[in-house]
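S1.2 Input.
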Amino acid sequence: MNETESPYNTRKTPSKSKGRVRRSIARHMRRNLITGSLMLVPVALTYLVLRFIFDLTDGVLQPTVQWAFQRFGLDWTVPGVGLLVAVILVYFTGFFLANAVGRRMARWAQGAVMHLPLIGTVYSASRKLVESFSGTGETGFKRVVMLEYPRQNAWTIGFLTAITTALDGKRMAVVYIPTAPTPTSGWVAMVPIEDVWDTDLTVQTAMQAVFSGGIVTPAVIKTRKLELTGILDSILPETTEKGPS
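S1.3 Output.
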């Protein structure tokens, strides 16, 4: 029996090796393209919307303001009128959506956008991302927690996003672990409930700590074992259990 026919021949043919390399490169590129898109698309959309509002308002109001000054014999230009109006417009949009009529209109508009191909998917992802980092809405970050990672007696801040159940029936906490100073490039860990510690930090306080690289951190952080009872309620009173100090 020759070498190519031997059942013990384990050498890989060049064509199979090249095929595996191509598949590996394709998976690598696909994974990084998806990750990069999830990071950049919401940021780009936010920029485009604000830029559109700025250009629209600045293009309309700048000539009007200059004309008004010229009527009084003043040759003044006011840079940034569009930016000021854009900020005011965003503020009053939020103010309008805070009442019942505004919320109903917003739900109707969001429902219409969500049914649009592609646009609905991008809008939904962008909205959930904003809700997560602002600590609002039914989705997003529920609690600020701590994990003993990357080694014993070293602790990492994370955001509890969900509770799930593993195949063996064990309850698992889904925790988003941000990286400083850009928390949108973090990673997700599924951790047993008993290995997660609850804290008294708000999402905003934890975000300040992450954005500042730990410079802006509370002097004292209270912790307790994470419990399923009332997990979406306010932080429960501190217990005497041992936790990170």
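S1.4 Remarks. Residues 14-71 form the longest helix (58 residues).
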